[in-house]
Amino acid sequence: MQPLIKLKARLSEVLVRPETNALKQAISESERELAQLHLEQAYHDYRAKHPIQSRNSLPAATDRNRLLVDGPLDETLILVNESGQASVVRNIRGDLVFDRGSATLCFLHDANLDAFGMSELKAKISEKGVRTFEISASPCAADRLERYDLVAVNRGLFATLPANLASSILKAVDRGLFTLLGSLSDRELQAARNADSIKSLQLENDLQKRVIDGFGLVSIANGTSVVCQTVSDHQKTHESLVTRAADRLQIELGSAPKVISTSIETAFVSTKRGQCGAIYSSSKDLRDLITGLQRDKLNYHVLPIWFTAVDVEAETKNVAEAEARSLREEQQLDQRRKDDQLRAELQRRQSGEEKRDRQDKLQKENGALARGLQELITDRIKEFAEKSDRADRTYVRQWWPTLATWYLEQIANDWELESVVSELRDYGTVKWKNRILEAGFVALTFKVKNRALGEHQQKCFTVGYIADREFEVARDPIAVPCEDEVAINRYRTARDFSSKWLAN
């Protein structure tokens, strides 16, 4: 293993500032070393599976997407979805918001990072507020890039991508649908590995000198991936903290960790019986644990993971908020089911006059919220339409591309905007990832004229979105011609839309 690590380190140095002759020499020397290590066949099998693709059919690189092909070849780039179609969006301040702190990620090629590298990649993304990840087991599909919150690609492997996939990501980045969130290089990974080793030694030294307070982990090489959590106060908080370190623990223990809570005495005995592969505890109990392990001549490793009292306090708050949110959502869903049952029963008995009365009542009760959503949509569209320089800071082109494309084509063909008329079509609630959110649909009629042709035209679009007021973002925007009722009905059905405006 060590010869391979050294070989990778030498290659990484060359890839930082790739130069043709240096790369050729490094590749030639590496191939000779692989042959000496009896890995020549495995190397050729990999090259056959990942051939260099022809670039003739690809669009030329632009200033916006050049980052994909220019720069150190050892860097893995992390791209974030800016289309508004995924679970990540920017709020009114421009900050990225990942729904419920979760993100979906795919690699454009086979994942090039080992378990440690993947944990470092997640740690870098976590700085943006992500707590949980759903990572695709297979490479991204060229026609489904917009479904992922994050896309990762190693610059050195970009040349091995299929032409259609390379073209798709180049175009998406050039259009601003994906932007750079961050990057991770082999040099950074090596530095992180070194820092981990130093931190482990420092933590053990500080524990033995009694100069550190907090909570940490000690692993024992006995073949099990069970982590014994031994802090009795705020048990759920400490279990949650251990779960946050799951990636690093999996590297240490060899498989996904399973957390159980027990006492420090029971955990110590369990390590000898192969029932605890790691122990999480306070600094005092960890000192006693290390003393016992040294006395019994058991191999152990202080992990480079440490939580302070401040971390515990913050996590206690997070756990409480998550439990409260889960309870609220269950109550909302239960109430929603009851409301739907009651509404269905009433609808069966109501006459046309009763229906009109009920609709008047609905619109009176929900008028302020519904009109507010209508005004937000209308103002955003009008701002987009009235910008003479077409500088779209309204996200209309990203959220409602069909409408934006039609309008810009009209302007390009010498049609002038006369007015935009807005009509509220519907307002209500949807079920979005087990949460009840507001949604609205507005009919926007564009009136335009062409002086050269001496003609007037008008075009109507049904425009809508889901208003997530908790995260201050617009979700699942839609814009279709007003006559396309099928698309709107499909949208409503897929999201379990319940009208608070029209009496059905």
Features:
flat; alpha+beta; five-stranded mixed beta sheet; 15 helices; 504 residues
- What fraction strand? 15-25%
Q: Can you tell me the residue ranges where pLDDT is under 50 for at least 5 consecutive residues?
A: none
Helix content: 40-55%
Helix-strand category = alpha+beta
Please, what is the average pLDDT?
88
Strand arrangement in the largest pleated sheet: 5-4-6-1-7
What does it look like?
With 504 residues, this protein is α+β, with helices and mostly antiparallel strands. 46% of the residues lie in helices and 24% in strands. The chain has 15 helices and 17 strands. It has helices at residues 2-16, 20-36, 40-49, 115-126, 163-174, 186-208, 235-244, 246-253, 264-272, 283-295, 309-349, 352-386, 396-399, 401-412, 485-494; strands at 75-81, 88-90, 96-98, 102-107, 132-135, 150-154, 178-185, 215-220, 226-229, 258-261, 278-282, 300-307, 416-432, 435-450, 455-468, 473-481, 498-499. A 5-stranded mixed β-sheet has the order 5-4-6-1-7, sandwiched between helices. The radius of gyration is 29 Å and the shape is flat. The N and C termini lie far apart (69 Å).
Brief rundown of the structure:
With 504 residues, the protein is α+β, with helices and mostly antiparallel strands. The chain contains 15 helices and 17 strands.
Secondary structure topology:
Layout: H1 2-16, H2 20-36, H3 40-49, E1 75-81, E2 88-90, E3 96-98, E4 102-107, H4 115-126, E5 132-135, E6 150-154, H5 163-174, E7 178-185, H6 186-208, E8 215-220, E9 226-229, H7 235-244, H8 246-253, E10 258-261, H9 264-272, E11 278-282, H10 283-295, E12 300-307, H11 309-349, H12 352-386, H13 396-399, H14 401-412, E13 416-432, E14 435-450, E15 455-468, E16 473-481, H15 485-494, E17 498-499
Parallel strand pairs: 4-5, 4-6, 9-10, 9-11
Antiparallel strand pairs: 1-6, 1-7, 2-3, 8-11, 8-12, 13-14, 13-17, 14-15, 15-16
